[in-house]
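Sorry, explain these C-alpha cells?

***
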Amino acid sequence: MFSNILIYFVVIPVVMLLGLFLCRNIKQIRAVAVTGSVVLTALSVWLLVDYLALRAAGATDPMLWVDSWQWFAPLNINLAVGVDGISIAMLILTGVILITGSFASWEIPQPKEFFLWLILLSTGVYGFFISIDLFTMFMFYEVALIPMYLLIGVWGSGNKNYSAMKLTSCSWADRHSSCSASSASTTTPLPPDSPSPGTSLRLPRTTPSATAGRHSSSR
C-alpha cells in the first residue's frame, strides 16, 4: 500500500489504537497489544537485515529509505522520513521494550486505557526515530509526552505524581533547548567550507525514553 516501509512504523500503531478502542474484553486487548508489538519488532529486524545488505552492496548515502510528503506548502512543512544505523537500532530497541511492557503489564488494572496510552506513546517514539524533518520530529516528540505523563502518573508507583511532573518538565526543557540550538545554528553565518544552507540538519536526538532514564538514575 505504501511505497516506503518506514511509514508502517506509524501506521501499525495507529491501527493498533483503533483495534484497542474496539476491544470488548481483556483477551482481545492482550491479543492486539502483543500481535502489534511483535509485528513492529519483526519489521525493525527486517529493516536491519536489509540495511546491512544495502551497505554491503555499496550504498553510501547517509540516510536510507528517504522520502518526503508535503503537508503545508506556505510554511514548507513536510513529512520527511529516513533512517541510518542508529535510527534502526533505536527502532529495534523500541520494539523490544514494547513487547516487554506488554507482557509485564499482563495483569495491570484498567488494561484498555493503559494499552491505549502505551501504544500512543510508541507512535510518538517510532515517528521520532524515522523523522528527518525538524517540524515532524518535534511533533512526534510532543505526541509521546502526554502518554508518558499519564502512564507514570496513573499506573506508576511511589511518588508518581512528582515523578511524572518532573519528567515532563525535563522533557519540555530538553525540547526547547534543542529547538533553540537548531535555530541558532541556522541563523549563524557559515564559514566558506561549511555545507550549504540547503543541507539537511540532523539534531542530537533527546528522546523521551532517554530523559526518563536520566531521571531514574538521578533518584
Notes: Confidence is low (pLDDT under 50) at residues 185-190, 194-204, 210-219. The longest strand covers residues 64-72. Residues 101 and 188 are 43 Å apart (CA to CA).
